[in-house]
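Hello, quick one for you while I still have it in my head. Could you read through the record and tell me how the tokens relate to the sequence? No rush at all, and the record is pasted right below.
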Amino acid sequence: MARAGFAVDARDIDQDALYALKARSGITPELASCHTALVDGYVVEGHVPAADVERLLAERPDAIGLSVPGMPIGSPGMEMGNQRDAFDTLLVMRDGSTAVFQRHA
């Protein structure tokens, strides 16, 4: 995210505190991944591409934020040579529902 121009304040916190932050932010276990970020009023969960975060901030939907559940191969930070899993970035709505925000082939 820093390479994409975002100011990053990374913090290592213990697992209980991380799970509590996810829960307070509306991230359910089904939407969870390994990283949680708070960006200008939104939560960004998992290996979300920077372009998706930029679009989120430009469009400002009435939502909790974005999630890429799990750790798909080929998502940012999960590169493994030429291997690449298709994955979706999900828009997490305030009622807990989701919609596909961006598909990544």
